[in-house]
Amino acid sequence: MPLLELEDIHFAYPGGREVLCGASLQLHAGERLALVGPNGAGKSTLLRLAVGLIAPGRGRIAAFGRDRRVEADFHEVRRRAGFVFQDPDDQLFCPTVAEDIAFGPLNLGRSRAEARAVVDRVLGDLALDHLRDRVTHHLSGGEKRLVTLACVLAMEPEVLLLDEPTNALDVENLARLTEILQRLPQAMLIVSHDAEFRAALTPRALHLRAGRLEAAG
Predict the structure, then answer these.
(1) How many Å apart are CA 14 and CA 10, to the nearest integer?
(2) Domains in the chain and their CATH numbers?
(3) Do the beta carbons of residue 143 and residue 131 sit within 8 Å?
């Protein structure tokens, strides 16, 4: 059974053309899948549909063995599927790195001591301890990207959705991000224009063309 399944998805933004017109995909446990296509093709839209941030005009969305139709259905999905947005500033809003990472666990009902333990573990796993007390908005773009991933991993997701994760990364932080993702066990759905990055992480890609997905050569 796939962890995520989108079937015959149709979607149009208000007043615009139909971006998706029959797109379908499945993501299984442990699978790493890339979505490729030109800017504006609808790749980021598909990620947002998968976690219920927007709703399709038509089609079926299933996650973790259940059809998801209304907003309440997606609360569980967003706990189990971690979404790393294209712009880290859309996700980082607490004063310090440690507070940003602790926010998710605290929101799930963890105690402050439990949340601190999660922060310690995630920062240690990602070798980011040196950023713990840094002011988040003073970080470089690459540091923000890694902290955003840390925030998502603190929620212990089963699936990672990554939207252009290499944006604004210098060579050193790109290598660090690639190394981290290579050793994570989660299934991944990755949108990226970086062919070398995709090749290092995803054995399979789907091309979004004319609103539909097909196997990429």
Answers:
(1) 13
(2) 4-215 (3.40.50.300)
(3) yes
* Confidence bin at 128 (pLDDT 50/70/90): very high
Burial code (b: 16+ CB inside 10 Å, e: under 16) for 37-54 equals: beeebbbbbbbbbbbbee
Q: Which two tokens stand for residue 202?
A: 């995803």
- CA–CA separation, 81 and 51 (whole Å): 7
Query: Considering the entire predicted model, what is its pTM?
Result: 0.93
Distance CA 182, CA 143 (A): 18
Per-residue pLDDT tens digits for 56-111: 999 999 999 999 999 999 999 999 999 999 999 999 999 999 999 999 999 999 99
User: 210, 21 in Cβ contact below 8 A?
Assistant: yes
